[in-house]
Amino acid sequence: MAAANALLGVALREATQRKLQRFSELRGKPVAAGEFWDIVAITAADEKQELAYKQQLSEKLKKKELPLGVQYHVFVDPAGAKIGNGGSTLCALRCLEKLYGDKWKSFTILLIHSGGYSQRLPNASALGKIFTALPFGNPIYQMLELKLAMYIDFPSHMKPGILITCADDIELYSVGECEFIRFDKPGFTALAHPSSLTVGTTHGVFVLEPFNYLEYKDLEYRCCHRFLHKPSIEQMHHFNAVCRPGNFSHQDMAGGDTTPLKLESEYVYTDSLFYMDHKTAKKLLAFYEKIGTLNCEIDAYGDFLQALGPGATVEYTRNTSNVTKEEAELTDIRQRIFHLLKGTSLNVVVLNKSKFYHIGTTEEYLFHFTSDSSLKSELGLQSIAFSIFSTTPKCSGNTSCIIQSILDSGCSVATGSVVEYSRLGPNVSVGENCIVSGCSVITEAVLPADSFVCSLSLKMNGYLKYSTMAFGVQDNLKRNVKTLSDIKLLQFFGVCFLSCLNIWNLKVTEELFSGNKTCLSLWNARIFPACSSLSDSVTTSLKMLNAVQNKSAFSLNKYKLLSIEEMLIYKDVEDMITYREQIFLEITLNRKQFDLEAS
Known about the structure:
Blueprint: H1 2-26, E1 39-44, H2 47-62, E2 71-76, H3 84-100, E3 108-113, H4 143-150, E4 161-166, E5 169-173, E6 188-195, H5 197-200, E7 204-208, E8 219-229, H6 233-238, E9 268-277, H7 278-291, H8 300-304, H9 330-341, E10 346-351, E11 354-358, H10 362-371, H11 373-379, E12 384-385, E13 401-403, E14 406-407, E15 412-413, E16 418-420, E17 423-424, E18 428-430, E19 435-437, E20 440-441, E21 445-447, E22 451-460, E23 463-472, E24 480-481, E25 491-492, E26 495-496, H12 497-503, E27 520-521, E28 528-531, H13 534-550, E29 561-562, H14 564-570, H15 573-598
Helix pairs in contact: 1-4, 1-11, 3-7
């Protein structure tokens, strides 16, 4: 089993490095027709996020970090009700039609869903999940570059249409030397990865049509009988989605976000990205134009794919167990989509040598960047990536991860922690399992274990300010209560939120929360000070964090206080990019001087 997993790891590493090398050769150069995507589009939740994404894309193009001659777009969701990634897909189709008319029928298009505010990984909240930094590359790769690299072979083997993916996952795969994944069939085509049944309960699961084959293949083209969205293990068995090791060996399959599958294990095929041809996209666009305004959340996976295949039935349209907010018209819209797409084929590209990784939560982020030896090896992740830090991390097991940061040699970072885009002075001690992002800490400071500390630049009334969100990595920022009397149910750094407010000398009033006064959470609690300097901002927020941990009073009364929700409204993207660029230039200069001295 261990030997088989090692072989899979080697195959994935070699395939991944080849793709990264190919992408590296295209960065900053004009691409030939058919060599790359015609259009790369990113979705945004609102106009503030749209502007932030456009600014970052502009910077990347200016610095020649992306292939040139490609149309890069940001498509923003319409103001009003949340419409989900399915609604965002429909909205993007309308934008393409407006921009290109009939021309887009000949385009290969990559659509990356990156709307939403990443409440489970808030260091991606201000600048977007698709711009999350990864610990490798010079300049540092972000999720956008990784997506473009991993899909580098797709456009030249694809008929005009749209490939749809999410911003916070990584798909690694290996196929035969002369084989390529082809997206050339009508309808939908989805990638499928072998996974444990437990993983299947949180993903989409394919029920494949019977298929007679005599030998194991890395790449198989299959037809899907029906698609199950986040099914129970009982449902997987009931609908015959479960596969068992048969007349060929599946021991070299592994689940990415799970422990490797055992030889005798049952497994299912789970989803990641999918493609739709232009004709299908036009059908969905016509539907969107007909309904006008969408007032409910549509899931591109659950609501589009469940309508496909000969075994699809209408029952799922009434199942709202996986829905975050149940709107009155949801069932009606789902049923209309079902009848629109019924009979459309769902082709499945089975990738038997593949892994799927999700990096959308603080827990996943810390695990994959510090502890997960598989992803580190397959993707070439580094413990110190494009940074100045003379301390050598431990060679095996759990290490820290430093990304584009400048750390004094006297600074200490404990295992399991990630530091990105930060400056830490000589007397700074970072505890275990911390996330430190965009910070500058000059004075002596201790970051308790399991801390999340992230600084943002703000533009308030024309003045540049800074605010640092600080809490525990395990804190649930999405958990909300409806009334002030219930805020005792919220927890900050594992402590009752009401007790924290007493420590900070803050009164429990409606003014304590921004936005919706019937949805009270750590996300919209006005508890983070706005300061005139970045270092003061970090120091002050650390004091409030340490006060909670030590149960000692620290009054926040004299400060202008903001919620995370408000920070994102006031965020100054330009200043944050400038701060990162200053760190980049300093590291570059330091490396040049080191090379000169070495020669």
